[in-house]
């Protein structure tokens, strides 16, 4: 599938899905959310592909949502007339975007995230939908939405606690602070840390090769069974957070975050 955001490369039974917007630090514009369903389903249906690696072109994995471009897709976020006719289509759009990450979790084949540099906001949402996460030593992670006056509504609040536990997830959500690769490994956000991006890619491929050594039907069935334990919980949480997100926008804090970003200064939040 052709995409304006993803680049797919296949080598043998391993496919690499590159976040391919390096000039913008792979910030997630509308194609990042819309194209992913087709990209990952196509790989899931490809009989030659057995393992998928997700990585970012350039020095950073993902700088999160491209707020300026996403507002073009979600003008309801800043619409002062927050009546039912505005809220209802916003809810549908949020669920469409959620599906763009849930597809990674629900396809049959294992997905490994290889993270270098910054992994912020939507990038963290994405890797939490992957089965396994690896990082380079320079990787940093931030659940960033609270810093821009939003609630994280793409699945990280549902998936991250299952990976790192409630205490760490709440600390990351409430502070929006960055944690480094070493801390990420300590809290089980990533399985292993590699010296640099080159070693990371080699490590991701080595792990993929290990998975290829197992029976594919057993690997896929294992993923299905592991997902079965959490699917209903995540689906309910996604519906709930979409409704909550729609209820708290627009806010003065969100508008201040957009203004501050354009003016390249720290936002001054008022809680309104």
UniProtKB/TrEMBL annotation:
Molecular-function GO terms, alphabetical: isomerase activity
Keywords: Fatty acid metabolism, Isomerase, Lipid metabolism
Pathway annotation from the record: Lipid metabolism; fatty acid beta-oxidation
GO BP, one annotated term: fatty acid beta-oxidation
Keyword NADP: no
Highest rank taxon of the organism: Bacteria
Family in the record: Belongs to the enoyl-CoA hydratase/isomerase family.
Name the UniProt record assigns to this protein: Enoyl-CoA hydratase
Source organism: Desulfoluna spongiiphila
